Amino acid sequence: MTQRDRVRLLLSAWAWVYAGSIAVFFVTDRYRVPLLPVLVVLAACTVETIASFTAADRRRWLPLWLLGTSACFAVTSPELLGVDVRRMRRDLHVHAALREADAGRFDAALGEFAAARALDPSDRKSETARRAC
Questions:
Q1: Coil, strand or helix: which one is 42?
Q2: Which residues contact 30 (CB under 8 A, 6 or more apart)?
Q3: How many CB atoms are closer than 10 A to CB 79?
Q4: Sorting pLDDT into bands at 50, 70 and 90, what band is 31?
Q5: From CA 104, how far away is CA 125, in angstroms rounded?
Q6: CA 131 to CA 125: how far, in whole Å?
Q7: Same domain, 91 and 72
Q8: Which of 81, 102, 119 is at the close of a domain?
Q9: What element of type H or E holds 9?
Q10: What is the C-alpha separation between 9 and 118, in angstroms, rounded?
Q11: Cβ atoms within 10 A of the Cβ of 121, count?
Q12: CB under 8 Å to 16, separation ≥6 — which residues?
């Protein structure tokens, strides 16, 4: 293995681990951070690595790399990870309502709180935040 191949493999391994951690973060956490530029760079690194495995002497590893890439898409499934999608959507409405209230748009904030309450009527968090508004 050449020095270039070792560097490429190290970057690819880092990209896989980092992209996996970001995917899990996006699915399991209610906050959405704009990491698209970083993900594009990591995706380009992965595509370049997979393309390098199409050479005749390395072709036997291509199915493994494609399987790994497919597994990364499966990791982003909230149902697979057991994430409560309804709670996640409710939290998004609560945070949107708080942003609206901070901006002084109280009617819009109340609408967001109503949407959050409709998703989970037993939630005290949205009711407490609505009263503070």
A1: helix
A2: 88, 91, 92, 95
A3: 8
A4: low
A5: 20
A6: 10
A7: no
A8: 81
A9: helix 3-28
A10: 49
A11: 9
A12: 46, 68, 72
Claim to verify: residue 14 and residue 76 sit in the same structural domain: yes
Structure-block tokens of residue 75: 């990791």
Retrieve residue 95's tokens. Answer: 């945070």
- pLDDT score recorded for residue 25: 73
Residues 77 and 123 in one domain: no
Please state whether 104 falls in left (phi above 0), alpha (psi between -120 and 50) or beta. Answer: left
Find tokens 């890439």 and name the residue. Answer: 69
Is the C-alpha dihedral spanning 48, 8, 35, 88 positive or negative? positive
**Domain tally for the chain?**
2
Which domain, by its residues, includes 76? 3-81
End of a domain among 81, 102, 122?
81
Identify the residue with better confidence: 32 or 41.
41
Report the C-alpha gap between 100 and 91 in whole angstroms.
14
User: Exposed/middle/buried for 52, CB within 10 Å: 0-12, 13-18, 19+?
Assistant: middle
* 65 and 105, same domain (yes or no): no
The residue whose two tokens read 């690194």 is: 45
pTM of the model: 0.43
C-alpha span between 30 and 126 (Å, rounded): 15
